[in-house]
Write a structure and sequence with these properties.
There is one protein chain. The chain is an alpha+beta fold. The chain is built from 28 helices and 24 strands. Strands 15, 16, 17, 21 and 22 form a five-stranded antiparallel β-sheet that branches. A four-stranded mixed β-sheet has the order 12-14-20-24. Strands 3-5-4 form a three-stranded mixed β-sheet. The relative contact order is 0.10. Mean pLDDT is 90; it is low at 1-35 and 739-774.
Length: 774
């Protein structure tokens, strides 16, 4: 059994028998000010001792908050009455309170779909297990010691979810996730000596000492992505699933390795400035009708945290919140490019690949079978599409072929009469398989054994989706439309969660993130002007090359990147991308001239140096490889990849202390890096540090993949052909397998619903995304 607890500065790992136990090294805070200091401490201790008497410390004696990684400043419970209500904070922070009330943070506990899922866990395993979820969804309940076997299923403070003083009482955070934070007893004020004052403080006293109020409730790390990472990164520990450690999601890691963080040299595109979680989800906005003492120059950091949660504002009729969610999702998040047509059995006057569409004339024949390639680019999202719980979130490509009269000839990604998604749709999802080889179709993550496939798109990358159909038998034109659509949950889950009667289905809003349409005619197709907002031609080829590379189509990917190099001879990354293709193709020596060309265009370019170092190490040139990797690490000190490869290179030279330092740097960036666990276990042993070696070996044994788990996935894929196709990087959606389906997609509504039945929200936009609601 592996678990972690966090102090205000770091976590310590100790091996105890076959189990690894994390001991809290937190330093208690100064405590309450004035004469009430001792009595306040006594009251807290009395409350904690009272709770401890009947508390089931199921997972490890003395560590009562497991399986959540959250803890308190002294390891004791905190009386929930210590937390000021959100309304109390709203006295002075009216705008923030109004925004928070509509947010997912405020409504983290009360939605019936969340309660359905967490109560399923409680029913199957016991209330203690739900601390794993509630450490982030309901921190007050966990800190209060309410989540113990025999405890209450609902509590009066649940209505506030993650209330103001939860976030503003956090003292430190870690990068492990699953609630990796240290929570103190709330204090809205410091005394003159800098000690926290617990309990009620009048508005007048706060306003008279704003500096002391700020010192109590604001800390510099609150504005960092690491603050968000404490919950927006999660794992499933062995104590939850009785199996082994499994990564659940890692939004923070996705951001940290993306171009948005500017902490890694490896992304395909570079961003001009750093964008954090707060940049996108807490933008400073002008105050409107409500005052707020926290505003600066009339602007306040948004406490809506608008993201992709479209169901909470729909269900609770938060119209303004839904509007903000839609605006965020449709703001240049996804680029769609109907990039190419491949005619089947091309005639002498036809190319085998007609691309990029619109740039030159081409001809198609009547009744000719064609394959259309659609490139989906994750353009404006700082993490994956879809992030977090993608097993029951739904984002997919809707592809439609219509004749000149608007009749649907073929389609994929439609909504079926029972409101479920076409099972053959190209979805940005995964499939969680349990120990019986079946699907965890209701988010029973505690039963996970393996992910059958993961079809997400990381930030800045692209995915290729291919559709085959037959052109009309007579002269004419067809329009092909590709759109990325999204709804919060798949129909099966939301119907079960809301306990819908048989034959009835809850209607979620379907939001169209982006769409584009092109016309294909039998006979001659003239070249066209670029669509509004369309990417330049070199970028279209570049995105296509990235998608092909991820689909393991190396020759075609290289050809695409060579087109980029011809269109942009000044673009160093075009040469590097060709080299990356050779490296993934395991043709290392062939990559060298392209990397050298890249470096001639951009001296000391870290991305080219990194890949050159990999080639040099493969060639046995360790000194050159190390020199280049050190240059990369100097430019990007938070690059986990640079430190990891440096560590391995030093290890190959038997420079164990240097290798150890690099892998420890990797762990400071990502404590769960598997290569760091493995290699540090070896390095510590060789350096005579047996206890540390045992700790790392135990972590590696728990966190590495189970080699037998793939059998569950293979068995499931064998039985589900439509899902098996999605697990293959290079495949075609044959639209004629379904025949000509005349059923029309759900007609979109124009505004948020005022009744329990939510709207379908579609956006109209250009090829590059971004438009209003129609």
């Amino acid at each position: 059994m592996l678990f972690r607890l966090f102090s205000q500065e770091h976590a310590t790992r100790i091996l105890a028998g076959v189990a690894v136990t994390m001991f809290l090294l937190a330093t208690p805070l100064h405590g309450q000010a004035g004469a009430g200091f001792d009595s306040a401490n006594q009251e807290r201790q009395a409350y904690s001792q009272k709770i401890a008497k009947g508390y089931v410390d199921r997972f490890s004696a003395g560590h009562p908050f497991l399986p959540s990684n959250m803890t308190t400043d002294n390891g004791e419970f905190i009386d929930p009455k210590s937390y000021p209500s959100a309304e109390y904070c709203g006295h002075c922070h009216q705008e923030a309170h109004a925004e928070w009330r509509q947010s997912a943070h405020s409504n983290s506990v009360r939605p019936p779909w969340y309660l359905y899922n967490v109560n399923t866990l409680n029913d199957e395993k016991g209330l203690s297990f739900s601390r794993h979820c509630e450490g982030c969804h309901n921190p007050v309940a966990v800190a209060a010691g309410a989540l113990t076997d025999g405890g209450p299923r609902s509590r009066p403070y649940d209505k506030d979810g993650i209330t103001c003083m939860v976030c503003h009482s956090i003292q430190s955070v870690g990068k492990y996730g699953t609630g990796a934070y240290v929570l103190a007893e709330p204090a809205v004020m410091m005394d003159a000596n800098g000690k926290p004052i617990h309990g009620p403080v009048s508005d007048a006293e706060i306003l008279a000492h704003l500096d002391r109020h700020s010192a109590a409730v604001m800390k510099p790390f609150y504005s960092t992505p690491e603050f968000c990472a404490s919950c927006h990164k999660a794992a499933l520990p062995a104590m939850l699933n009785s199996y082994k450690w499994q990564r659940a999601f890692a939004v923070y890691d996705e951001w940290q390795t993306s171009s948005y963080s500017q902490q890694s040299p490896l992304p395909f595109y570079k961003k001009p400035v750093v964008s954090t979680c707060q940049t996108c989800h807490m933008q400073r906005e002008q105050l409107t009708s409500l005052p707020d003492s926290g505003a600066k120059d009339g602007k306040l950091a948004s406490h809506r945290w608008a993201s992709a949660n479209s169901l909470i504002p729909t269900y609770y009729h938060f119209d303004e919140q839904l509007k903000r969610v839609i605006e965020l999702l449709q703001h240049d998040a996804v680029n769609i490019d109907v990039f190419a047509v491949e005619p089947d059995s091309p005639t002498a006057d036809q190319k085998s690949l007609i691309a990029p569409l619109g740039t030159e004339p081409f001809a198609l024949n009547p009744a000719q079978r064609v394959t259309v390639s659609v490139v989906i680019q994750n353009k404006g999202i700082g993490h994956s599409l879809v992030p977090e719980q993608r097993d029951f979130y739904e984002a997919w490509v809707a592809f439609t072929v219509k004749d000149s009269k608007g009749n649907v000839l073929a389609k994929s990604g439609f909504i079926e009469p029972n409101d479920s998604l076409d099972p053959a749709a190209h979805s940005f999802t995964n499939r969680l398989i349990n120990k019986k080889g079946g699907l965890n179709d209701l988010h029973q993550v505690w039963d996970n054994r393996v992910i059958a496939f993961n079809n997400t798109i990381q930030a800045g990358r692209s995915q290729l989706v291919r559709y085959a159909f037959t052109m009309p038998r007579t002269d004419g034109a067809v329009s092909v439309t590709a759109a990325v659509q999204y709804r919060r949950f798949d129909q099966h889950f939301i119907d079960a969660a809301l306990k819908m009667p048989a034959g009835k289905h809850y209607q979620e809003p379907i939001i169209e993130l982006s769409s584009t349409t092109r016309t294909l005619s039998t006979g001659l197709n003239a070249s066209t002007s670029p669509l509004p907002g369309e990417n330049p031609e070199w970028m279209r080829w570049n995105n296509y090359g990235i998608a092909l590379l991820d689909a393991q189509q190396y020759a075609a990917s290289m050809s695409a990147f060579e087109r980029v190099a011809k269109l942009r001879p000044d673009y160093a990354d075009a040469q590097t991308n060709i080299a990356i293709t050779f490296i993934q193709w395991e043709k290392y020596n062939d990559a060298v001239p392209y990397l050298e060309k890249s470096l001639s265009l951009a001296k000391d370019n870290a991305r080219a140096l990194y890949y050159l170092a990999l080639v040099q190490r493969n060639q046995g040139k360790l000194d050159e490889a190390i020199a280049n990797l050190r240059k990369v690490a100097a430019q990007f000190p938070q690059s986990r990849d640079a430190h990891r490869e440096l560590g391995f290179s030093y290890y190959q030279q038997h420079k164990y202390e240097l290798a150890r330092a690099e892998y420890e740097d990797v762990q400071s960036i990502d404590p769960d890096d598997l290569a760091a666990h493995y290699n540090l276990a070896i390095l510590y042993r060789r350096l005579g540090m047996k206890e540390k070696a045992g700790v790392e070996a135990a972590y590696f044994a728990d966190e590495k993949d189970d080699p037998t788990a793939s059998t569950y996935a293979l068995e499931y894929l064998r039985k589900h052909r439509e899902v098996a196709q999605e697990s293959i990087p290079w495949h075609v959606h044959d639209l004629e397998e379904h025949g000509a389906d005349e059923r029309q997609p759900t007609v979109p509504s124009t505004a948020p619903a005022a009744s329990p039945t939510p709207p379908t929200t579609q956006g109209t936009q250009t090829a590059s995304g971004g438009a209003g609601v129609k």
